[in-house]
């Protein structure tokens, strides 16, 4: 029916045709609709121009043409279930459109679409049909304007102009707002394309078979719809058209499947070369090919628009389609990463028109391959779990007559609501734990005549999102949360790898490496998914049976350190022979009973089941302990020096320093700060024992232990006592308590281990809350060293001893202040002599002695002095103005003030700004001083009465 055009030519033809007719070619907007939070993805050409139709945006053109990238894979418009099953559906597609914003209307739009289809693309005229709107209810007038325009087209069969009702031919943006009739163009593909041939069905335009195909929709926006159903004509009428690109390409290339157009040729070739299938074999099992080509195309465009595989929202969609493509790959024997190879063909096909693909090529390849590898690590375990759930489901009593028979061919069965259905929450667990997206679980279930409850999955997903939103943000790798880790815990408990309390937590003996020298790696989580192993540089979360790493609490920060594989021994043969190392940078309690080491693989390839040693960074931990014990001493000292009301209001215990906030109404005096610092250092020198005892909360409170306001404590609490006497019995805190607090932190054995305590700053943290920052031990030494060095440097510059530096500085300051006085007096003398010289320049204006003088290098005080001098010389009939730099002083004698001359007016009169009393004013002046001063006599003349 037409010469064979390539897809790229067809797209260009469309754009060129409308550009020739005065349209501006507009690039596609991103798949991520900016500023439209109601949409997950751009899903039609309309999205880009919505605000123009609503009247809230204006474009510099009134005619536009574009090819818009669209995704329909989530939300109301979701074509995913049909993708792969048939030849016409896609998750990603292009929408060709021409647009009139209050410019041309039906006549032109219809004529141009007829011309493009029949003349440019030579589609036989007798194959085409046009539909127009005729209201079923009769409340909106029939669109005769469009029908007449169609009937006027050269060579159209007038019997091919048909009318349809609201469902087919009326368009509205929403419940209210812009709307109007539309007019569609359909093509008759011939009897051979009738998929219901021989069966009774409604054949024809908008019928039930595939013989008639809608090609192009022209929407004529002419009404505004109100809530009461009233339609009002819009002052500006618009045209919005949409033609499915893949569809027109299939028609013009004369193929019976969008997937047989040249848009997909290269992708299919890549796949065929990988599987070794002949074309005939491929077409016999076409579904996996269709799904992979479609999904890789979508993924490439998504990644180019910045949407990479992940756990939520758009990123979930990207993850799901990549994983689904990978799974369909395994159905045709592709078990190694292969998606990047298909993507290369996609980029070659589309990269000229959509340059973002070429620009993002490395990111596209990288993301696809990484996601395939991640999925491959868990898919088997996940699928095995799913199979167990599905066989349980099948074993349940169920009316087999209602179930569908298992389908094993390439068809993707459509949902059957009678099918036994897997609980959606269970499907969600499969996703959370094994990264098996809902859509894949559903594919697998349906292949066996079963189904998965989507509403339940979404419900579980929502709860999960809420739970992660409220959880601890630190150390999160992609938003996994409590439920995910609770699932891991359950699994490990079932395998007897963990007891009922989960991971054993004993940070108090954390530095005792021997306790943690032979631990089994129970689980690895990479990028938020369970993994059997991790690679070099992978961010990883590690679960061990027990840990000595402290988890941030009570202001004390996480421990860091290393988890290292053990060399092979007779015990762990076949284990971590290769040697690997994970650097632990943080900790978190991921779920009740689940403690996770957060880190990065810095050597080798850790695997689940390997034996390892977990080593807390002991030096860093020791620094933290010094700061924590010192915090308790500081708390005590503040109570002594200030009052019992100086209660703790927050703290940070880090390896480098400590920060302590406490209630106190005003800044501490230097003396108070010094007393606090001295008191802490005396407690350090006293070498007091620090005793940790666990007891009941009641007992601790009765004994007067300090508890933090607002903190929740359990029945039993850990107490830290610093004793004034030596311990009588091991494990007893009997004796005079210097300090007594409820605290879960890690502490020294004796206070002397703190070494030294230096307050670095005292400041305000909030209203009524003061903050002290201090250093201890090595931090204190570093600070002392640094300060000494500065002092030595100052002494050298001052050519004196360290002790005499303050004396020298005092003497220097005296010297400087004397010099300043001397300089000021010299300047005043100079000003005075300039003034004296200037007195000869006095002019007489209406009997008033007027002087305007520039005095170099004088300050305001000097100028005021000159004003006094002037009034001494001219106690009557005087007006003077002195300028130095930007500063202006004006003075007027009392009698002259009475004649209407005010000092401030003199300043503003010459172009300056300022004011003051009538006889003396100060201000500023910008610009040329001489020119300004020349105006002065005139100002006086105008003002003087
Ligand atoms: Zn038919
Ligand atoms: Zn503490």
Which features does this protein show?
single chain; 945 residues; alpha+beta; nine-stranded mixed sheet; eight-stranded antiparallel sheet; 34 strands; flat; binds zinc ion
Summed up:
The chain is of the alpha+beta class. β29 (843-845) and β30 (848-854) form a beta hairpin. α13 crosses α14 (424-434) and α18 (618-641) packs across α19.
Overview of this structure, please?
- This protein is α+β, with helices and mostly antiparallel strands and about 950 residues long.
- About 40% of the residues lie in helices and about 20% in strands.
- It contains 27 helices and 34 strands.
- Helix 10 crosses helix 13 (about 360-395), helix 11 (about 340-350) crosses helix 13 and helix 13 (about 360-395) packs across helix 14.
- The longest helix has about 35 residues, at about 360-395.
- It starts with 6 loop residues before the first helix and ends with a helix.
- Residues about 400-410, about 470-480 and about 570-575 have low confidence and may be disordered.
- It binds zinc ion (2 copies).
